[in-house]
What does this fold into?
Amino acid sequence: MCGIIGYIGKKDAKEILLNGLKRLEYRGYDSAGIAVLQKRKTSNIEKITVFKEIGKVEKLEQKIDRIRLISSVGIAHTRWATHGKPSKSNAHPHVDCAEMISVVHNGIIENYRELRSELEEEGHVFRSETDSEVVPHMIENYMKTMSFVQAFSKTLKKLKGTYAIVAIHAASPGKVFAARLSSPMVLGVGNGEYILASDASAIVEHTNTVVYLDDYEMAIVSHDGYSIRSFTQKEKRKKEMSLDWSMDQAKKEGFDHFMLKEICEQPRSIQDAIRGRYISENGLARLGGLASVEKQLRGIKRCVIVSCGTSYFSALVGKYMIEEYAGISVDVEYASEFRYKKAILDDQTMVLCISQSGETADTLAALREAKNKGALTVGIVNVVGSSIARETDSGVYNHAGPEVSVASTKAFTSQLALLVLLTVFLGRQRSMSLSTGKRILKELSEIPQKIQKILEKKDSIRNVVKKYVSYENFLYVGRKYNSPIALEGALKIKEIAYVHAEGYPAGEMKHGPIALIHKNFPVVVIVPDDSVSDKMMSGIEEMKARGARIFCISTENRSDIAEIVDDVVYIPKTLEMLTPLLSVIPLQLFAYFFALERGYDVDRPRNLAKSVTVE
Ligand code: BG6
It folds into this structure.
């Protein structure tokens, strides 16, 4: 998903926009571009100057570093290619034929082909293969008979699909225009300056005061202020909200990569997720965000969890927890499938949406589907004020702080911690005993320091990686609570080291995947000391019998395992349902050091983006 930004203020627009693009780069890095409005000596119609470059933002920066652009108004874009390959001509911003209008877009315009051919029949000349380029040409077309604002809103009504758009117009100096339908858009309200961006990470260094645009809203921003309107030009009064995180949190703070920083932040991010949200002596979870639906939650008979990527794997762990300790049947659905299937939902069904960004289009669409079907919708979301957070009936924020690295780590364990609290919340509404509630919460409160103990072993994990870095294929296996961790471990090494890895419930091995066992196909086995570790031991024996090389994650009291596997990393002992919060840490570090050894850009892996805001 692309990152878009617009600036109007007193400062040098080029610098603000380039820095903003760097903050948004985790949304896509196939190409980058900038357009600024510059005064002309001879007329009050200003000049639009555009620069684009293929690849990462630093390439664009190198290109325009020495070019003096006197301007305090501009727009910029970092791209995740959907329509048209990564190239300079397909890079945004796009302009109209007369180069009077410039536009950046995040989203997909589904009817762009027919719009484009209509415009080409009218003589418009297109310079790119993108869907987005129809926007400036449509505005140009309508401006033959109407003002820019009228032409812009008429264009918006014609577009099908999803979009967040920021635009400038040479004959409307001192103004920036924006609109939103499904793709996120935030307006930062500063002191005499305004920043429009895909998310708050590009705004927080300038101001903590923001306005979130909703669907079918447009913004007109000038040096003196802003107005938010509907597409039919009806004025809208919007609440200004304040961001709860600082600029430092969005910096690497001395770490080589955001991913390593975020892995090492997990003791704190879990502490922040659970702080003030449980009463140990009563064995109760206290989730303020669910207070308004507490009664409804008491009546639900079924829970459906919808999510994507790493959030899908936390949902799978949540299913084990809620079914075992709250006695509620749970279905876990890929949001991208759920939105198109005939889901059977009723008012005794809770649909839980788990999303770090709160903007993943598939999860947002699944949420809207669930609402249409009358289900109670609850969210576990990290980004405050994001669409999923604002559209669910209720929910809980992770408070994990900004997660910048594309591969999710601290958001995952923070989601697991909140799923534990939700399980206790629902369980204690039902038949979970006081002592069970107290035991789970006591063990949960000790997880942060247990993770710290594992992080102190990161160098030994790096040494293990050195023995495996030459392999191109991996199997990851685990059972019960840790079968989703096998899937997550495999996903991590796929995401950032581009290695073929398959995660599997260990019991399934003998029904097929064991055929893959070979000396060049190592197996990562997750076998904490729990109710199924004996079953795992016989599985390990079977794989060793066929020559497998095994790297194992196990609990520190299981020294016997070291005799039969090739390498082992131990994690502290905890309750079975909490082992995923520990067993995933060595797998995150394994993938991180593996990618590092292979010299890959760990934070910006190829072809991926932090939040997928299009289908
Ligand atoms: C992908 C990210 O785009 O979306 C993953 O690269 C993430 O890290 C997945 O797990 C789901 O995102 P979210 O924000 O809905 O949890």
